[in-house]
Design goal:
two-stranded antiparallel sheet; Cytochrome Bc1 Complex, Chain D, domain 2; 3 domains; three-stranded mixed beta sheet; alpha+beta
Length: 194
């Protein structure tokens, strides 16, 4: 409910449809939606693989899709998330998952940052989000989340564009992270069982 309220107030930026939906909802509708989504079992949607090369992709709306002609390219310093089955994803099949391609070494580096804070670079995520990153009380679970979503939120918190109740607490946690750190954290979090 807090996230919906923050979308509605404009404190939390996001997809235009989330802003429009939340602004049109009553408090009772927000509560009903929050209770419904909280009752759903959390499932893994993304499997993470470390690789030097990735399939060539193009954007279909806001989603990366594999180029029909095929081919590969170097991954560089990116996480590339594409559907396991582009056809099933376009049909909105709720059982079709994604593959997140991450640079080699990302998972180990991400685990080091998440569990130990990179030996002082940041605060270990496990302190607030729990040892398995499944959340503690009102602090959200992170395990198994889309790496693109995790990276986006970390960037927005670091730049101050993500506002709301928890954002000030996260600002100090993320402000010293490099792009490579964010890629590693995002890939590692996505690799965990929710």
């Amino acid at each position: 409910m807090r996230q919906l309220a923050e979308f509605a107030s404009g404190a939390r930026k996001g997809a235009a449809n989330m802003l429009a939906f939340s602004r049109a909802m009553t408090a009772d509708e927000m509560k009903t939606a929050a209770n419904y989504f909280a009752a759903l079992p959390v499932k893994r949607w993304t499997r993470v693989i470390e690789t030097d090369t990735v399939p060539k992709t193009y954007f279909l709306g806001t989603r990366r899709m594999p180029l029909p002609a095929g081919g590969t390219e170097l991954i560089g310093s990116r996480v590339i998330e594409i559907p396991e089955s582009p056809e099933r994803v376009e049909l909105r099949d709720p059982k079709s998952g994604f593959v997140a391609h991450a640079p080699p070494g990302s998972l180990a580096k991400g685990q080091f940052l998440v569990a130990r804070g990179g030996d002082g670079k940041t605060t270990p995520c496990t302190i607030c989000h729990g040892l398995a990153l499944n959340g503690l009380a009102e602090v959200p679970g992170l395990a198994g989340q889309s790496p693109m979503n995790v990276a986006r939120q970390l960037y927005l918190m670091a730049t101050g564009e993500r506002a709301g109740f928890w954002a000030p607490l996260m600002k100090g946690v993320v402000e010293k992270l490099t792009n490579d750190d964010i890629i590693a954290i995002s890939a590692y979090i996505a690799s965990l069982e929710p």
